[in-house]
């Protein structure tokens, strides 16, 4: 016979919107039998048709007594059942990531539904990962969750780094008002993979080279060795600040210039004294100065026009790459030009300081900045705008050098 309290309980859950399948699964967990649940459901959807029967007064009194007694007993059990079923919890688990390596997280969705009449209550939820071979708990987490209607949360549970590969069990237990709800999922712990590192002898991760750069220590930059040899015996080849500097050696026999001190010991540069026709133009004197600078100077001194004379001497200083000839010049502009020219030819920025005109002096310094990337002269530039330009070019040069060094 169908128990009315079961019928009423199921009817109440149906009115709350729960489906028959959910109600049945939940009641099975709490000890109700399939037969009892099915009879109650049939009673709700297929009520028994009663036929009117005429009974005697005595029979009616007996029936009333029996029915009253049954109602009392049913009411007693129903009220007690209502108390126990006021808080009823359904717990389900859905797998998200259940095959993991040691140190990773097991990920799953935890669904909790309030099937009781109580609107809100707390449940203590314990999540455990259990070794199927030893039944040892290898990871555990406990939290308190307020149950209202239903909730679905993604949960992560970390696998210890020392966990052994094998089959495990995820068990979730919800405890509330002396009752428990359980749910389980199979878990598999995989063998640990060979993790990338900065000492595995392989270029991986975001390394710039094998085991260096990126997340590893910076790679040692190999500074290319500069070959500054210009195959000229009359220059001194050195590296300064990462750049080649080929400084002229004076005097030097073999540069096709007869320099001071070479007249008696360098026949290659200083031809034997011969009768050289007197040059008639400044350009001819300049050509003579390459082999016979002193004769050229004599010819310059014979010029009566002062500016032409100074220009002539400046030409000797140019072909001889010798600042001493600039000193002999009287005209300030021509002297300044002589110093500027010799400074560039000898790669000696200190000669720019000899220039008396600030504009020409700055121009001399800027020549070293633009041609040789020599930014050591920036502080010596008088004009503020040009000095700022020099500093700006220095910054650009440094940025380019840094970018090139990281490639």
List the helices and strands and how they pair.
Elements lengths: L3 H12 L4 H10 L4 H12 L11 H28 L4 E9 L1 E2 L4 E10 L6 E11 L5 E11 L2 E9 L7 E11 L2 E11 L45 E6 L2 E6 L33 H8 L3 H9 L4 H15 L3 H4 L4 H15 L11 H15 L11 H23 L1
Helix pairs in contact: 1-3, 1-4, 5-6, 5-7, 6-7, 7-9, 9-10
Summarize this entry quickly.
By secondary structure, the protein is an alpha+beta fold. It has helices spanning 4-15, 20-29, 34-45, 57-84, 282-289, 293-301, 306-320, 324-327, 332-346, 358-372, 384-406; strands at 89-97, 99-100, 105-114, 121-131, 137-147, 150-158, 166-176, 179-189, 235-240, 243-248.
The total count of strands amounts to 10
Shape by Cα distribution: rod-shaped
Major pleated sheet: 5 strands, mixed
Structural class: alpha+beta
Number of domains: 4
Distance between the termini: 88 Å
User: How much strand content do the residues show?
Assistant: 15-25%
Rounded average pLDDT: 84
Global Rg: 52 Å
Helix-strand string: HHHHEEEEEEEEEEHHHHHHH
Could you give the order of strands across the largest sheet? 2-8-7-4-5
Count of separate DSSP helical elements = 11
Helix content: 25-40%
Uncertain regions: pLDDT < 50 for 5+ in a row?
none
């Amino acid at each position: 016979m169908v128990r009315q309290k079961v019928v009423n309980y199921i009817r109440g859950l149906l009115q709350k919107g729960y489906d028959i399948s959910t109600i049945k699964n939940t009641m099975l967990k709490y000890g109700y039998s399939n037969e009892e649940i099915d009879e109650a459901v049939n009673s709700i959807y297929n009520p028994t048709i009663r036929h009117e029967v005429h009974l005697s007064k005595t029979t009616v009194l007996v029936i009333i007594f029996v029915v009253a007694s049954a109602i009392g007993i049913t009411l007693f059990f129903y009220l007690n059942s209502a108390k126990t079923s006021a808080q009823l919890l359904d717990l389900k688990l859905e797998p998200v990531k259940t095959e993991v390596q040691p140190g990773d997280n097991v990920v799953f969705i935890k669904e909790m539904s309030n099937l009781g009449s109580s609107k809100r209550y707390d449940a203590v939820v314990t999540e455990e990962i259990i070794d199927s071979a030893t039944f040892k708990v290898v990871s555990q987490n406990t939290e308190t969750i307020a149950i209202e209607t239903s909730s679905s949360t993604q949960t992560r549970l970390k696998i210890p780094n020392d966990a052994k590969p094998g089959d495990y069990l995820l068990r979730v237990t919800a405890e509330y008002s002396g009752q428990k709800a359980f749910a389980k999922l199979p878990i598999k712990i995989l063998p640990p993979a060979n993790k990338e590192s900065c000492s595995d002898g392989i270029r991986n991760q975001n390394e710039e080279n094998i085991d260096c750069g990126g997340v590893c220590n910076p790679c040692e930059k190999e500074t290319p060795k500069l070959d500054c040899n210009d195959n000229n015996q009359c220059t001194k080849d050195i590296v300064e600040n990462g750049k080649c500097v080929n400084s002229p050696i004076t005097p030097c026999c073999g540069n096709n210039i007869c320099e001071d001190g070479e007249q008696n010991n360098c026949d290659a540069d200083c031809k034997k004294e011969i009768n050289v026709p007197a040059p008639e133009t400044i350009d001819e004197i300049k050509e003579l100065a390459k082999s016979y600078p002193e004769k050229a100077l004599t010819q310059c001194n014979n010029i009566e026009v002062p500016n032409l004379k100074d220009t002539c001497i400046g030409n000797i200083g140019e072909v001889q790459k010798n600042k001493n000839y600039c000193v002999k010049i009287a005209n300030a502009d021509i002297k300044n030009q002589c110093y500027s020219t010799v400074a560039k030819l000898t790669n000696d920025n200190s000669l720019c300081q000899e220039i008396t005109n600030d504009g020409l002096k700055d121009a001399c310094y800027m020549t070293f900045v633009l041609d040789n990337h020599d930014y050591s002269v920036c502080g010596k530039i008088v004009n503020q705008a040009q000095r700022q330009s020099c500093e700006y070019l220095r910054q650009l040069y440094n940025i380019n050098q840094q970018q090139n060094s990281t490639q």
